[in-house]
């Protein structure tokens, strides 16, 4: 489930703006989104030497990293477990020892600006239920990401502009989003990972979802899924259901990297079972999961989300065009 909203976390940690909690190695980018009708921002981390003249004609693969708010992956104190480091430290260390090559990391904003309402990479069914949530606009987050953000990144940075150069990964609700979008659009991504994804349970051979799932009763999901939730809409946007129902040959072209913490380390034992459900779907469709389904010793925090990326970034790199 989602962690404490970032605004609350900053207050709890007594952080002041001058403490510079965001990783300084990122670029802040804003888009005037036509799909959303508001300005959205995201962050980009470019590889060392990107702007050097010797590399002026080189194009780079991109990994999109999801959570909720765009700053979570790059906030040094998103929770105390991080001890002042971010996923960019993980990437730079892997790059230094040769486990990955130069790539671009992108951190999209796919929630309301206050991180109160998750966008889930869907076109919200009832955005009007998010009364007063800033930065939500029309709530068409799927259109925003696919039709605006990806083309914008490809136009402004030297990316590999096809599926061979794109990967996605995410933590918690970010795992829902990364697997959802890759299962929905396997023509756009060659690799997809998730750590402790908050997945829904597919039922009836993928034609429905478990109606009494407590995730669907959480008020924060009412703008996305309705209240009560719309079963057909939820089913059409659920990663587990998409993995069951979409074309297997297309899904087989994606490298899947899905895992959770151990059952003993999970909040309410929830995401462990949800991840195992999705891994079981992959197995049932004879689709390989490229990592062990449990990250031993882990728990649901940012230190372990970064550790997940320490394991998956090299695998994404191998699948990407420059690997």
Summary, kept brief:
The protein is of the alpha/beta class.
Order of helices and strands: HEEEHEHEHEEEHHHHEHH
| Biggest sheet, spatial arrangement of strands | 1-2-4-3-5-6-9
Q: What is the CATH class designation?
A: Alpha Beta
Large-scale geometry: globular
Radius of gyration: 18 Å
| Oligomeric state | single chain
Q: How many discrete structural domains?
A: 1
Going by CATH, the homologous superfamily would be Alpha/Beta hydrolase fold, catalytic domain
Helix content: 25-40%
Report the average pLDDT across residues: 92
Reported for the largest beta sheet, the result is:
7 strands, mixed
Strand tally is: 9
Count of runs of 4 or more consecutive helical residues: 10
3D structure, described in words:
There is one protein chain. With 323 residues, the protein is of the alpha/beta class. It has a single domain, classed as Rossmann fold (3-Layer(aba) Sandwich). It has helices at residues 6-12, 87-96, 141-156, 173-184, 222-225, 231-237, 239-245, 248-251, 270-284, 302-319; strands at residues 27-32, 39-45, 62-66, 104-107, 166-170, 191-195, 202-203, 208-209, 255-259. Strand 1 (27-32) and strand 2 form a beta hairpin. The two termini are 33 Å apart. The model is unreliable at 1-18 (pLDDT under 50).
How is the topology of this model organized?
Elements: H1 6-12, E1 27-32, E2 39-45, E3 62-66, H2 87-96, E4 104-107, H3 141-156, E5 166-170, H4 173-184, E6 191-195, E7 202-203, E8 208-209, H5 222-225, H6 231-237, H7 239-245, H8 248-251, E9 255-259, H9 270-284, H10 302-319
Parallel strand pairs: 3-4, 3-5, 5-6, 6-9
Antiparallel strand pairs: 1-2, 2-4, 7-8
